[in-house]
Amino acid sequence: MLQAEPIYIDWNNSLNILDSAYKASLFVLIIGAKGTGKTTLVRKFAHMHGKELYTINFSLRTRESHLIGMQTISNGNVEFVEGLLIRSMKNGSLLYLDELNAAEADVLLRLDEALDDRRQIVLKEAGGDVVRAKDDWFVIATINPLSHMGTKELPPQLLSRFPVRIRMEYPPPDIELKIVKAHVQLDAREEEFVRKAIKLANTLREAASVEELYYSPSIRESIAFAKLIKQGTDAKVAAEVVFANVYEQWGGTEYRKVMDIITSLF
Residue 138, SS3? Predict the structure, then answer.
């Protein structure tokens, strides 16, 4: 069953690129920092095309069995339970490989087998059966920059499986405001506060990009700020709880740096 249509403003033409890649049967790699809208873009694309979405979130704990499946015992019988990769291939679904460059090498190796031009995989876990993907099977992967903790370089062979690459950045302030307003109805006074919050977010993002701060706020935080002031929360308090308090995990110095900026704006 399809979920409600995601709110996504296609400010950098990504949906058109995805659409062309899908029609040409070319897998896509989306590269960008956390919170730039990569997942929302994928969900929007799936909804537009009425495709069932299978998502694998990669980490050091992701195993081959999550992709391929495993043998289990049910009612005394040994059965093979298919993983998300196999199910998506058989169904011709959209497979979303989130944070692919956080996966371990053995996991990437099995994935690479399915992504080559043959679009098939040998199930050594199920007697050597060969699974061939339906023609409309489509794969989108996302990766974070190598500056993000837990990420690693993808092998060139695997990168070549995704010949279409989309670079995602934080949107310009006017576009970010438009995104926020798509989620929260604002009056003129509230909109002015949100403009300041977006200015704050971009200041913190720039500081994080040169490693002056340890965290870069996402568009989600700008939306959260707007929702709080819509509920009557004082703007400075909303900025503190949404943008500043997270920096306490790196110590009081980081927190005070951000609070100084908030005080100057609010």
Answer: strand
